[in-house]
Design goal:
Layout lengths: L22 E5 L9 E4 L2 H4 L5 E4 L5 E2 L4 E5 L12
Antiparallel strand pairs: 1-5, 2-3, 3-4
């Protein structure tokens, strides 16, 4: 038996959480805690160097940002009116 990282229950039939143990790895900025980060590819990536990551909110940049694991949220289905 393995413990679920999201709800703390064991990963078997006794775990009744509705997220079905699906999770997403999200990178975030260590300065402002924003998840609005991206890779910046410049001239250095042409020479085989590692591209850097940049926060679009505060401008912080680093070779890599920390990763947090968050549960997957269910998407709500919006239905339009039929004519």
């Amino acid at each position: 038996m393995v413990t679920c990282e999201l709800c703390g229950e064991t990963k078997c039939k006794t775990c009744k959480c509705d997220h079905k143990h699906k999770a997403v790895r999200v990178r975030f900025c260590p300065e402002c805690k924003s998840t609005n980060v991206k890779f910046v590819f410049k001239l250095q990536s042409l020479f085989g160097l590692i591209p850097r990551m940049e926060c679009l909110k505060c401008g912080e940049h680093a070779p890599d940002f920390p990763v947090v694991i968050v549960p997957v949220k269910k998407k709500s289905k919006k239905r339009g009116k039929k004519k």
